[in-house]
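One-letter codes give the sequence; backbone shape is given numerically. An example follows:

. . .
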Amino acid sequence: MSVRLRQAALGDLPLICRLRVQRTAWLAARGSDQWTVAGKGRPIEIFADAVGRALDAGETWIAEVDDEPAGTITVNRRADPGLWSPWELAEAVVVHFMIVDLRFAGRQVGRHLLDHADRVAELADRPWVRLDAWTTNSDLHDYYRRAGFRLARIAGPGASGPSRALFERRVAPPTRLPRDVRSRFSMQSG
């Protein structure tokens, strides 16, 4: 099986929203309130707006397996208020909206998406990949631990939203690319 990542385009927004709806239903069927409105998740319209902004900024990618969309990830330098400190953000890229299509679950698509976040961090000269996970989803926490992340902490009361479990992993020391090559691939500030 070959997993290929490509930069997402605005035309991928319906696909990404479909993945979110699919995964939310799957989680709810297993008793999780992740991403549900009842669980204080963002309604799909607000999610779509956030993903649309990330698409416009070039921060979102699609994983494909045999030319079939299999998952998505957004990687940038921002986080919701109250999650990470300014100095933690200054040395990291942040993963958002990572979703794997259920048809490809268990086929290492998520690992490829997270490895891509490492490459983005390397190119941006950032030693950390950080993310916030749904606070009550212990299965998701275990998934990130198996992927080499460690729980940094549960964000305090100053954090908004239900994703307050903060995970991080250090990026392997990069093979030093010449600065002009890194600058061509580095992310836009924002």
